[in-house]
Amino acid sequence: MLETNETEEVKVTVQERILKAAEEAFATSSFAGTRISEIAVKAEVNQALIHYYFDSKERLYQEVLTALFQQWEAYVQKWSWDGLDPESIIREYIRIHYELKCDIPNLYKIFHWEALEGGELFNKYASSTWTQDFLEKAQLFNKWKEAGIINSKLNVNVLLFSLWGMMNQFYYREQDDLQSITGLKGSTEELHSVVVEQMIQFAMHGILAGDKLEIGGCRQEETEAGRMEVTVLMPGGQGYRDHEDTAKLLGCLESLTGVTVNVIEEEEQLKVLPGTSRLFFVFASTKYGEMPPWIVRLLQTLEQDGSSAADRLVAVWTIRDNPAAEGVQRMLEDAFNRLGAFSAARIPGQSPRDYIKRCAKLMGM
Description:
InterPro entries: Homeodomain-like_sf, HTH-type_TetR-like_transc_reg, HTH_TetR, Tet_transcr_reg_TetR-rel_C_sf, Tscrpt_reg_YcdC_C. By secondary structure, this protein is α/β, with parallel strands linked by helices.
């Protein structure tokens, strides 16, 4: 029995050596450019043994890809985008995919060889998750495009391929190369971190400077057309001032170039919506799904004076401390729309900053 176990261990060790040698060969020279004899030399075995274990070069190629995709899937299955806003998802997507390329470089080298040579074996043996991951991200980006979160002129598929293209210029490079390109000193890991942050900045903010400013985390175009007024409705006594979302939203609003923020905290001032404001920002909260009484009274007042809300842009921010808040958010958006206003829809998971960006875009800024 001991001899049998030792024999099995030797068999596994030999197969692992062959697979490792084959992975390096395919990554260096492609499937078409690799010979079994070269793999045998790298693995320090004879060719007959490779054929004994793997039958053919294609079968060996399949086994190499299977092992690499098992590593890739282990990464992918750990990811979760739940609760992240679009900007955080884009940052994490770039960072994680770049780390993947750095950690499993041979998978991507083999893929690139096949793409250059017009081969079909990679697609034949690729994990189904490989394609599914792309389709899911494309679908998500298209939703953001429809919601006005990302540039409506972008082709989402081209965008994703462009992000990967940036990564492909760097993931395989060693320290000397990275130091030469970045002009910085540091370890390989530190320089890769610099590169990935540059890619994130490019994806988030583009190339040109001057046409947009970033102040307090919000980016908006400069305008010489005069200041715009934004009215924030949040009557005192409701606890809005104490919530962290409020500070973020007000800070972002106040940092917009050319904008004056007018905060109304007295319900008595809500008889009509000020005629000079381009945007009305309504804060709400709920415990069990009920609509805040002051907003009910405001809606009743606006209903009696139909012209007050007509064609006005209204942003609603329901503080999401419980599951019922999502329902109230949608009810309020629908209620203002029925009064003839235009509600800036807030998508689930959207951060305060991204919601303000969406509102600014709808205001024509």
